[in-house]
Structures are given as C-alpha cells and as structure tokens.
Description:
Family: Belongs to the LysR transcriptional regulatory family.
Helix content: 40-55%
Radius of gyration: 24 Å
Largest sheet: 5 strands, mixed
Strand order of the largest sheet: 4-3-5-12-6
CATH architecture of the largest domain: 3-Layer(aba) Sandwich
Shape: globular
Number of strands: 12
CATH topology of the largest domain: D-Maltodextrin-Binding Protein, domain 2
Keywords: DNA-binding, Transcription, Transcription regulation
GO molecular function: DNA-binding transcription factor activity; sequence-specific DNA binding
CATH class of the largest domain: Alpha Beta
Protein name: LysR family transcriptional regulator
Number of domains: 3
InterPro entries: LysR-type_TF_proteobact-type (IPR058163), LysR_HTH_N (IPR000847), LysR_subst-bd (IPR005119), WH-like_DNA-bd_sf (IPR036388), WH_DNA-bd_sf (IPR036390)
Number of helices: 11
Amino acid sequence: MEDWNELRLVLAIQRDGSLTAASETLGIDHSTAYRRLKALETQLGARLFERLPGGVYQPTEAGARIAAGAERMEDEFLALGRDVVGGDHRLSGRLRVTSSETLAYSQLTTHLAAFRRAHPGIVVELSIENRVLSLARREADIALRPVRPKEGELWGKKLAGVAWGWYAAPSYVAEKGALSRSQKLDGHALIGWDEAASGIRAAQWLALNAASASVVYRTNSLVNQLIAARAGVGLALLPCYLGDSDTGVARVAANPVAELEGELWIVTHADLRKTARVRAFFDVVGEGLARQRELFEGKRGISRKR
C-alpha cells in the first residue's frame, strides 16, 4: 500500500458504514470509490468489507486491521498539524468555529462582527451544526457547546448557565393567558420537536411533561419554533437568550424550567490553546458572550417583555 488515500478510503468506509457515505466524506464520486476499493482488495488479495443488505459495508478482520492502522496514522498526522498550528503567533489566517443554530442566530454574530473589527486579518469560517464536530480531527478549531467537554484533550471555559422558558406572542397571551405558578400546560397549544429530535434534552422533557395531543406544530429547528410562537401558533419552550432577546414574543412564566438548566462552554483542543487566533477569539467573542450571563441565565426581567 503506497498511497495514503487508500488508507483514508478504508477508514472512511469503516467509520461511515457505507461506500456512499464514505465517498461523500472524501469528496469523490461513488464509482471512483468503488473502483479504488476493488483495486485495493485485488492488490492485497483480501476482502476488506462484507457487503450487507441496504448498502451496509461491514469490515472483515483484514479491513478492521487496516482501518485501525489508518486511524493511528491519522492521529499522528493531526497531532503534527496541531503542534505546528499551536505555535502560530500570527493574528491572521483562517479560524474555523462551530456553533448551534440558535446561538448563531440570536447572539453570536454581533460578537463575530466585533472580532472582525479587532482582527481584520483573521477569516472566520462558521459551521452551524447541532451535531458535535471533532476538535481532535480538526473539523473545527473552536466550538461553542451547551455541555461541559468530557474529552481529556480539550480545553475550555464555562461562559454562562443556560436557562429555558416558555414564550408566546402577546396576542396568544392576551387570548389564552400566561402560565400559572405551577406551569401547568393544560389547555395550551404547544410547539414542539419532530421525531428526529429525540436526543435533545428539551424535547425529551416536553415528551414527558406534555400530552402529545397538545403539540399542534412540530419542527426540528428552535429558530423556526421561535418564529412559529411569534406568529401566534402556541407556546414554545426556548432558551432564554433566544426568547428574551426577541421583541415578538413574551415569556409566559416568571421562572425558567428548572429541570432544563444547562451551560454554555467555549472549547478548543489543548494543542491549540496558545495559538494567537484562538486566544484572540476567546478574548473577544468568549468574553463578550460571558458579559451576557444574565441573558443566558434567564435573569433579565420579564416585565419589559409584557
């Protein structure tokens, strides 16, 4: 095996579980990926994957060994890259950031504008992703995450707590009334998540605490839930930093939902923490978001919203 791309192909198929998904990951067409895999198997005289129904590719013992070796090589390659970038003292170049849709929509972009004014030589590439991108594999340099990082190689800081509350259009509140102190949802039309959002903690809480028949509108986008609430569709369960900053909706219960209290973290790989671009982003954007702690934690008064 003389070509690193052969190893990358085997690793991608093993990770993605199909040739189609692997070809998309590598940016090549399906027929090219198929020809390269067949040529590699012929060259080695060994079958690397079993083709199962539904297009699933399951690695054989030989395929698993090659994929494991490729992963070790990838780890070394990425570590070398992080080591080089980690010593970069230039306030110029590319900086890849990942954030959720809601944070980017409501708060982050203002701070990115401030960062641009402070450091015009740095080009920010923002990936709006609700899935967790790998900082070890350099899918992003910096992540803004709603959970404390668990991976030992990551480094970051907590910016604020994150509170969730119920929001609705003023016209809806005038017709149906606000929630009681007990926050009982009886008689209210609710905006919720679709089935694909079953892994979201707020979606799980809503499924346990509200009758399915009460949910009159479903979407996997929190931004769209906000827009639906603004249009008077019903009550939406939103992060307070999203709802309290939007003049088209009002909080309909004084206290946030205690069970949904979360956190906002800014995270990078430990190897990149001393990179000038990363430090600058932590200083400008991270500190800017941290100064909005009251908004994130739902402590901004709701009287001005009614």
